[in-house]
Amino acid sequence: MRIVEAFDIYRFYHVEEEETLALRGVSLSVESEEIVAVQGPSGSGKTTLLSCLSGLDEPDGGYVTIMGKHITRKPEVERAKIRAQMVGIMLQSGNLFGHLSVEDNIKLQMHLSGKIDTVWLDKLIEEVGLTERRYAFPMHLSGGESARAGLAVAMAAKPVLLLADEPTGEVDFNTEKQILSLLDEYRKKGNAVLIVTHSNAVANFANRIIHLFDGRIVNNE
Ligand SMILES: Nc1ncnc2c1ncn2[C@@H]1O[C@H](COP(=O)(O)OP(=O)(O)OP(=O)(O)O)[C@@H](O)[C@H]1O
Ligand SMILES: [Mg+2]
Question: Is residue 45 in contact with ligand 1, taking CB distance under 6 Å?
Fold first, then answer.
């Protein structure tokens, strides 16, 4: 089953007279039970792509569907509803509310989507290796711990589409392995995962790798 599809996405940024062509005609789809890795140099458009796929950002051209529903050029309330129910997104930073503990950040996401599951809450915290940091506040977390907490928040509502920007960017080898097995288990439940990663271990683990260069897909394995 097709979980997400992007058709001919364009995204341009304008800062004064300067124009950046961040995405230039990107098309892709991710099926249920697939993990797809996105790789490419800094500035190639990876984060922009994730933002457009999640509906956090609007492409200037093309469209995105999630579970067959168009999310592009829809009112923000509608996009927010689809996002809350179907998409989990872990960005490179800013995934956690500073005044809430790790546990409360995850719980808030569950509340927002109306899917409260305390068994899943405990399992998630354990699997991302944050049992000891469960009641810690974001300002007291290391980079790797913040990344793992962000991933747990993204997975809290069991979204059918999980988008993660460098989920193992700042974690050690063992934690990376743990996160990969969590993602694999997640995928097997029928979900789709798209991860931006510089890690070759993560890319090799994925079912497919999409290479972005200068806003375009250069090859699609
Ligand atoms: N809000 C913005 N305003 C203007 N330009 C932007 C904005 N966001 C991104 N860009 C530009 O668009 C291009 C793509 O940026 P993007 O963040 O998608 O790259 P990336 O592949 O995620 O890079 P990195 O690996 O460093 O995270 C870059 O040239 C960037 O400078
Ligand atoms: Mg980025």
Answer: yes
